[in-house]
Amino acid sequence: MKPEEPGITLSQDGHAAILLCIGPDQSFDDVATELFELLLRAQSQFPDVPRHLYVEIDGHRGDRTGFDADFFEFQQEFLLGSMGQFFTMIDTPLTGSLGNPEAQNNDVADRLKIDGTP
Question: 109 - beta bridge partners?
Answer without folding.
Answer: none
